[in-house]
Amino acid sequence: MKNSVKRIISVMLVACMALTFAISASAFEGFGGSLFRALSYSNIFSAEKSGTDANVKPENIYDRTFDAVGFAKIFSLKNQNGEEEETESGDRPASSIYKRVVVLGVDGGGTFFKDTPTPNIDRIFANGAITYEAITSTPSISAQCWGSLLHGVTPEFHMLTNSVSSPFPMDSLFPSYFRVVRDAFPDAELASFNNWNVINTGIIEDEIGVYKDNASDDAKVTELVLNYLDDHDPTLLFVHFDSCDGAGHSSGYGSEKHLKQVSTVDGYIGQIYDKMAEKKLLDDTLFIVVPDHGGTPGGSHGGDSEAEMKIMVAIAGKTVQKGTIGEMAIRDIASIVVYALNLEQPETWTSRVPSGVFKGVEAGERPVYEFPENIRYKNQGQPTPLKDSGKYITDFFNAEEIIGYITLDGETKVDVGDYDAEQRDKLYYVDGYYGQAASMDDGYVKLRYIPNSDSFSVSLWLNTRGIGGDPAIVSNKNWNDGRTQGFVLSLRTSDIKFNLGNGNARMDAEFPLPSDYQNGWTHVILIVDRENNVVKLSYDFGEPISVEIPDSLKSCSFNGVTNSINFGQDGTGSYEPLPATLDDIIVFDKALTADDIAALKEYYQAER
Ligand SMILES: [Ca+2]
Ligand SMILES: [Zn+2]
Q: How far apart are the C-alpha atoms of 173 and 158, rounded to whole Å?
């Protein structure tokens, strides 16, 4: 049983990768279609599931397929050799066998459980494993942190942000632990109850048969869970409480009100635990309580202070070691969950089972995963070239051509150019294409430049997932109406739309995004050429697509409603937020030529 479960998982991962490949296969013309149809997901799966000794080894066929295009190496699949895998997986300790895992998430709980009475947590985890030193993901924001907990990777991989507005992609390289468990147990009951419904709508995949329900207060969420447990026995149960975060924002984290709310949620946790006891479900259950982040006395989070980053993790179960959990990151919860169900974690996860959770299980080395080079640009960890390195931006362009060069390396300022830039509201600095980049969910960048009737160009790196509306990447107009004066480059599900208005007339042009744009960094160049009356857009340093400016707008200025151009917002600063990370913004005082685009490509060492 153990082995067959594992084999199914491996095969399913191959299948999921095939899907990824199929989607990006358009680049390899004449190759994609028939092979992938013949080896469809369900064929492979049912062959394995039925237990027939299929003499066709799907893995091998895929190996050959991927080898042909250099894919096998990317994924370094464990199951490249079926036999080896089975020996390698060998016998696992009995500590890893549970029938169900319950994760109760306390948004904004941090480590405050130790500062206020929590009689239920005290009794549930009296013989359990606890730490108050676990570290959440940066930035310490809910979607980023819950995303790490559920998907086993840091935010630069899962790319989730609070404004996520579409389902988590089924072709992602980073499946949630729900998906991993679903792939292994097709008939298991999986359930997720949330106060913050984004976890259900955008973080846990759709289409994998998870029972999802939401309520807008924690007492109601608890009631939903208790009712559900009356006649269901879920293999996975995830519950999200939001009231502590609310109290932390309004009264300060660690304030009397916040602590009181932590105690209240402790009561809900006790009710769910007792219900499981009543239903005799506790014996084979791994029971976990974990918050996503803490917060400051001033009522905020997102930063990297201890009060924001440190979280409690409490774990109870029949093979859990009483005492203190060793070094742990929030994403390690994903490893703990699949380990408890005796499953292998995906090779793409960078999580691990920490020491001090299961008896006799020491933490292994933390897995490293690097973005596949030929799927999308990455450059993770490379700093911005230094000014005197011979590889700085002014070694490729004259400083006079640059209106503003903004590296976003931990702050918002202009490094080259005479125009000022400033941060508005809150930007989160995360790993970028070069150095750091700014995540724009709660803020934007203002560059004090007015285009008038001049030609100009904008170059930037974009990293995004989950677009629902049409937020502005760069704009100076009121984007609530396409006719208003000024321009916008707006991000949509599968294209970037350019719009220009003068108060009466408007022009709109759509530029389809590369099909795999959600798998890493995409480079975007907007060229406004007033001499030739065209607007051009280039992705990834490719040949720009050119659209003519209509007669009605030929003589209009590109000025908007503000004395700046904004990145991550429209000209009003109050349009829907941009659920994306931007890096290395350059505004040029000219229409870039083909040579200029080639120079940018060289500057970014962007070979693909
Ligand atoms: Ca940067
Ligand atoms: Zn919050």
A: 9
Position 188, amino acid: A
Instruction: Give me ligand 2 centre to Cα 195, in Å.
Output: 13
Tell me the pTM: 0.69
* Number of other CB atoms surrounding residue 84 within 10 Å: 11
Considering only residues 309 and 89, tell me which one the structure prediction assigns the higher pLDDT.
Answer: 309
Q: How many CA atoms lie within 13 A of 107 on its CB side?
A: 27
- List C-alpha distances in Å: 42 to 7, 12, 19, 58, 565: 15, 10, 12, 12, 50
What is the number of the ligand closest to the CA of 383?
A: 1
Distance CA 389, CA 487 (A): 36
Distance 469 CA to ligand 1 centre (A): 26
Exposure of 593 in the CB half-sphere (CA atoms within 13 A): 3
Cα separation, 7 vs 4, in Å, equals 5
pLDDT digits (tens, 9 = 90+) for 277-306: 999 999 999 999 999 999 999 999 999 999
Q: Which ligand is nearest to the CA of 308?
A: 2
Q: How far is the CA of 36 from the centre of ligand 2 (A)?
A: 43
Q: What is the 470 CA–ligand 1 centroid distance (Å)?
A: 24
Convert the pLDDT of each residue in 472-515 to its tens digit: 999 999 999 999 999 999 999 899 999 999 999 999 999 999 98
Q: How many CB atoms lie within 10 A of CB 126?
A: 10
- Gap from CA of 78 to ligand 1 centroid (Å): 35
Which CATH topology does 393-603 take?
Jelly Rolls (2.60.120)
Cα 186 to ligand 2 centroid, rounded to whole Å: 34
> How far, in Å, CA of 379 to CA of 461, rounded?
11
Ligand closest to Cα of 407 equals 1
Q: How far apart are CA 1 and CA 279, in angstroms?
A: 26
For the stretch 210-242, pLDDT in tens is 999 999 999 999 999 999 999 999 999 999 999
Burial of 360 (0-12, 13-18, 19+ CB in 10 A): exposed
- Tokens in use for 144? 């980023």
Number of other CB atoms surrounding residue 362 within 10 Å? 10
Domain-by-domain residue ranges, the chain?
Answer: 2-89, 94-340, 393-603
Q: Residue 604: what residue type?
A: Y
Distance from residue 105's CA to the centre of ligand 2 (Å): 13
Query: Which ligand sits nearest to residue 249's alpha carbon?
Result: 2
CATH superfamily, domain at 94-340: Alkaline Phosphatase, subunit A (3.40.720.10)
Measured CA to CA, the distance from residue 105 to residue 290 in angstroms comes to 5
- Crossing angle (nearest 10°) for helices 332-340 and 177-184: 20
Query: H/E/C letters for each residue in 224-275?
Result: HHHHHHHCCCCCEEEEEECHHHHHHHHHCCCCHHHHHHHHHHHHHHHHHHHH
What is the number of the ligand closest to the CA of 381? Answer: 1
Q: How far apart are CA 141 and CA 302, in angstroms?
A: 5
Q: How far apart are CA 163 and CA 577, in angstroms?
A: 7
* CA 472 / ligand 2 centre spacing (Å): 24
